[in-house]
Design a protein that fits this description.
Chain lengths: 271, 271
Amino acid sequence: MDNRPIGVFDSGLGGLTAVRELARIMPEEDLVYFGDTGRVPYGGRSRETIIRYARQDVAFLSTFRPKAIVVACGTVSTTALDVLKTEWAVPIFGVVEPAARAAARCTKSGRVGLIGTKATIRSGAYERALDALRPGTRVVARACPLLVPLVENGRYQPGDIVAETVVAEYLSPIREETVDTLMLGCTHYPLLKPLIARYMGPEVTLVDVGEQCAKWVAGQLSGQGLRSGRTVPGKHRFFVSDDSGDFAALASAFLGEDVGGEVKEIDITVY
Amino acid sequence: MDNRPIGVFDSGLGGLTAVRELARIMPEEDLVYFGDTGRVPYGGRSRETIIRYARQDVAFLSTFRPKAIVVACGTVSTTALDVLKTEWAVPIFGVVEPAARAAARCTKSGRVGLIGTKATIRSGAYERALDALRPGTRVVARACPLLVPLVENGRYQPGDIVAETVVAEYLSPIREETVDTLMLGCTHYPLLKPLIARYMGPEVTLVDVGEQCAKWVAGQLSGQGLRSGRTVPGKHRFFVSDDSGDFAALASAFLGEDVGGEVKEIDITVY
């Protein structure tokens, strides 16, 4: 039994989709979220810069003495997780392994689609994980650099002509390959789920990496006797590196709960 | 006569459209460019963060002992220029004043459109400058947060369905107001000029803020006897805060000249 908080971070708002799942599955846990809104998006940056930013994110969350840290960011999970794990003693969980396991379970045809940021697709991390779990799986991967800016700007509703056009362009080569499973390889993408589901059709299963990661983390913590013993709801705290005024409103929409006055701004470059 | 370089900076690639104009008008000048590619885009961030980033950008360029610094960034020009000017002795030029002068000259109807980042539109800086120059001018302003990500990803050609859709959505309310002049209030936007021109029609004059700024700076330097006395072409040096591999290729396209091996990566956070 361990009442310390779970730390969660992402480049911006996307990781809140993982927070929502963590809070749903483990309502008694304290959660501390950091969104690096002063430097979002990460996905088009170099490996070196992503690692540098991720080190600071983990260092900040470590000040809360968390029992675990969740990298709720596809870009960091695919590009910097191994480095972070060698540098920190706290258990650090990324989104790749649980998502690959879910995709390996879901696919019947062995044809799996993958969308992510430039850095995620460049890393080949999802492909390696899937190949280890289900050798011979064919992965049709596509970098989608405009999806994070769209979601961060609140443009993800079905009927949004710009979002519809961008999604159709990115997904059409994947749909042509008749995959039966599509991995949403970035925690920003679940917001686009209704729109993506309509485009891909009902025969394609969407794997939400944040959701899978939350389930995986809950299982790991339970297995290691690290769950909280509380019987009351845990506290949720939110930190950002820049608040341009609309974070709280957008975040509330992402979470399905009010984050109102709870958002604090910090200087991430001092960590 | 002054052979010191001119420093130029932007959040990313956009400022290169101003560099192109500066090099065309003043080929004998040395230019030092800094693109903050590790933290691009600036336009959706808070005023405080934009000022913090801009201070570091100026501090870095100051290490070259420039005779002038050009803020080739609409967001910084509208949000941080006054602060920077009070803090540095070197002459600092932004894009607002020269662009507003051009728009005031161009418009016959007194109905002027303005597009820019969220921070630029929030600042009201173009409106204030225009009102001082041509009282009663009606400015129809629109924030276009997705245009910088589009341009930074090389998506600006006519025929690009995503770029066409985004531009049409942003510009339709401005076109409906029958403006005769449209200020492209961000140095990223000139890349979209052919596409924007086609959408707005031939009766609307487009004001390129980088181009106007370059002309203004040339005039100011000449007036103060600060032009270079060289008869050979000046050197152009390029610095970025992150090089994800495609900067040189994209930058060459923006500039119409090869920047090949000349791009150096620096850590902007130490300035």
